[in-house]
C-alpha cells in the first residue's frame, strides 16, 4: 500500500453527525453517509463525527476508532488508516515491559491479540489500543485492510512509507465480497421486485437493475432496504439493496433512467439496484 502517495487536496468540507444505535448505524444515517461519500467525486470531503451532546451513553460509538471503521465499512473502503500517538500493537505494554515485542502484521484478531491490547472493550468504552482492535475487527469483517501508524509530526503518511513503522491488519476478503456476503445473509428482505426477461438476463450478465426492466413492486420499503428480485415466472433471482423507496420505485418502474428526475422531482441514482449491492442466486 503506497500511503505516501496520498495527495493533498483543497476541497469543500461538509460535516456529518452520526449516532450509534445498538452497535450499528441507523438506516437514515447510512443514507446520509452515502450521500456525503458521493461528494468526494465533486470536490467535497465529508468530515464524519459523533456529537457527544446528542449521543447518549447507550446510543454512541464512544471513540473515533470504531466510528472510522464503520465509515470505512459503509464506504467499502480498501484501507483504513488510524494515526495515533501509538506506533502500533505490542505483545505487552512497552512502557512497563522491556521485553514487549512489536507486532507488524495481524491477519486475524484472536483472543491472544485482544489480550495484547488489554482485553475486550465494553460497548461504550473509549480510547487506547483496545478500541483500535475493535475497529480492526469491524474493518476486517468488511474486507478492509487497516493500519495503525504514528500520527505525530508533519506528513505522517509519507513518514510511514519511509519508516514502515506500524501494524497492518490484513483482510482476507475484498470490500465488495464482504459486503455481498453481508447482504446475502444478514439482512431480512422488506419487499419484492419483479423484473422482465431482459432485465433478468442483464442481471445474470453482471449488470445493475434499471427501472426500465421492472414490471411490479411488492411490499413497503425504504431507500437502502433489502429486496428480493424475481422473474416473471416467480423464480427468485437474488437479493439487493434498493436505491429508492417502494413509493418512488412504483412511480419510475418501466421508465428510462434519464426520466427519473422529471418523474420524482429530484436527481437520484440511475439504477434501482447497483450491481455492487446485488447478490444473485
UniProtKB/TrEMBL annotation:
Enzyme class label: transferase
Pfam families: AA_kinase, PUA
Organism: Candidatus Sungiibacteriota bacterium
Alphabetical list of Gene3D superfamilies matching this protein: Acetylglutamate kinase-like, PUA domain
Domain PUA: 191-273
Protein name: Glutamate 5-kinase
Assigned EC number: 2.7.2.11
PROSITE patterns referenced in this protein's UniProt entry, alphabetically: GLUTAMATE_5_KINASE, PUA
Amino acid at each position: 500500500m503506497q500511503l505516501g502517495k496520498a495527495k493533498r487536496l483543497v476541497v469543500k468540507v461538509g460535516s456529518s453527525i452520526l449516532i450509534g444505535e445498538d452497535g450499528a448505524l441507523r438506516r437514515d444515517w447510512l443514507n446520509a453517509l452515502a450521500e456525503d461519500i458521493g461528494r468526494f467525486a465533486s470536490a467535497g470531503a465529508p468530515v464524519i463525527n459523533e456529537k457527544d451532546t446528542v449521543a447518549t451513553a447507550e446510543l454512541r460509538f464512544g471513540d473515533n476508532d470504531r466510528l472510522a471503521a464503520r465509515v470505512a465499512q459503509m464506504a467499502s473502503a480498501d484501507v483504513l488508516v488510524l494515526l495515533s500517538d501509538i506506533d502500533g500493537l505490542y505483545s505487552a505494554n512497552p512502557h512497563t515491559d522491556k521485553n514487549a515485542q512489536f507486532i507488524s502484521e495481524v491477519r486475524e484478531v484472536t483472543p491472544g491479540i485482544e489480550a495484547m491490547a488489554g482485553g475486550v472493550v465494553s460497548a461504550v468504552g473509549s480510547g487506547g489500543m483496545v478500541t483500535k482492535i475493535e475497529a480492526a475487527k469491524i474493518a476486517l469483517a468488511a474486507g478492509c485492510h487497516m493500519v495503525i501508524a504514528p500520527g505525530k509530526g508533519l506528513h505522517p503518511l509519507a513518514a510511514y512509507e519511509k519508516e514502515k513503522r506500524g501494524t497492518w491488519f490484513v483482510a482476507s476478503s475484498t470490500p465488495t465480497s464482504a459486503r455481498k456476503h453481508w447482504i446475502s445473509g444478514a439482512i431480512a428482505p422488506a419487499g419484492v421486485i419483479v423484473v422482465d426477461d431482459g432485465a433478468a438476463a442483464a442481471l445474470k450478465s453482471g449488470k445493475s437493475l434499471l427501472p426500465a426492466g421492472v414490471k411490479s413492486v411488492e411490499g413497503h420499503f425504504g431507500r437502502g432496504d433489502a429486496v428480493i428480485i424475481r422473474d416473471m415466472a416467480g423464480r427468485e433471482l437474488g437479493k439487493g439493496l434498493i436505491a429508492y423507496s417502494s413509493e418512488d420505485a412504483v412511480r419510475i418502474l418501466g421508465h428510462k433512467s434519464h426520466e427519473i428526475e422529471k418523474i420524482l422531482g429530484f436527481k437520484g441514482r440511475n439504477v434501482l439496484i447497483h450491481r455492487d449491492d446485488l447478490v444473485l442466486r
